[in-house]
Amino acid sequence: LLTEMENWIDFKINTQETKIMKEDIYPIHRETDGIRSEIRILAETMQNGFTLMKERFEKMDQKMNLGFEKMDQKMDFIRENLEQQIQSSRENLEQQIKSSRENLEQQIKSEKEINQQRFLAMENHFKFHEKLLYTIIGLMVTLSIAVVVKILLV
Fold first, then answer.
1. Residues 94, 102: Cα–Cα separation, whole Å
2. Torsion over CA of 62, 67, 69 and 73, rounded to 10 degrees?
């Protein structure tokens, strides 16, 4: 009897387990399989998205590097051009300074010669006036003596 009872209990347990499996566990298992496949699809989609993003970033990086290279080339060209302009301006200014210095030295020399000539002319003019003054003084003294002698003789 015990065996029959055991069999019956075992049968009830098995049917209950089967029922629970069918009603509760299988749908959960199927649901988890669906979730797993959705997760797998999502993971693949994300992986594809990341791959696309990585490719886009690599392209952007290449474009940026190319842009930086072009910018460096432009900066080098501008730097060289500015250095040439500065050098040209420096040489031009040095030439202008040299020319101005030579002109000023020539003007100073010319003014000095003119001033020396004026000084000599004024000195000669002064000597002439000095001689004229001495002559006039001499004549006045002679006239004074002549007047005094004439007064004394009269």
1. 12
2. 160
Torsion angle in degrees (nearest 10) through CA of 31, 34, 36, 37: 170
pTM of the full structure = 0.44
Amino acid identity, position 118: R
CA angle 14/17/22 to nearest 5° reads 125
Three-state secondary structure of 1-13: CHHHHHHHHHHHH
Residues of the chain with pLDDT under 50: none
Cα(121)–Cα(144) distance, rounded to whole angstroms?
34
User: For 116-134, how does the pLDDT look when each residue is reduced to its tens digit (9 = 90+)?
Assistant: 999 999 999 999 999 999 9
Q: Which residue in this structure is represented by tokens 């387990």?
A: 17
Can you read off the two tokens belonging to residue 43? Answer: 């993971």
CA 118 – CA 111 distance, rounded (Å): 10
Q: What is the DSSP letter of 1?
A: -
